[in-house]
Amino acid sequence: MRILVVEDDAMLLDGLKIGLGLHGFTADAVASCGDARAALATTAFDAVVLDLMLPDGSGLDILRELRRRQDATPVLLLTAKDTVADRIDGLDSGADDYLGKPFDLDEVAARLRAISRRAAGRASPVLTWNDIVLDPGRRTVEVDGRPAALSRREFSILEALMSHPGTVLSKDQLADRLYGWDEDVESNTVEVHIHHLRNKIGRDAVETVRGLGYRLRSP
Question: Is the overall model pTM greater than 0.85, yes or no?
Fold first, then answer.
């Protein structure tokens, strides 16, 4: 899951980026409204972690702009402005959730999973496909009842495919979920991860649709 973090405190920004990475997210980070607008205009994110008090404006302006153009990207407001009135204003402006500072990183990760799950229209926190069960919160995968040890990026690919059952995801779409702006991506990287994933969950589980991408094979 690819996340945009908008926060002007450099130490907190680095901590969120690294911490969310340890929770399995691919996190890109910016520190201003201007950079946030540019990022949102050029990259598709699964969710946004948004501070309100930024050096060149309010995070609420970014949120309202998203909603005015019918952009439903889930937004978690993460801010020191935590009065009841602030929370009401943020939620009524289109935020999906609101968390005050200081915060617990585990809770931030859980709230991101929750708002992304709701945005996808899923009630269950666990993904299932045939005999594969994936638990995003626990970061576990079982195949026919047996645990499968996946790398972080193998897990992310499988989660993406299971979140869009029957849908073909292109190599570029998968790469966008796996790598942030500051990471180099080799041309065959996704194919290598798919190869290793097939070895762990079954070689017939992931189908290659020639010229288009990959999807989970129907029963």
Answer: yes
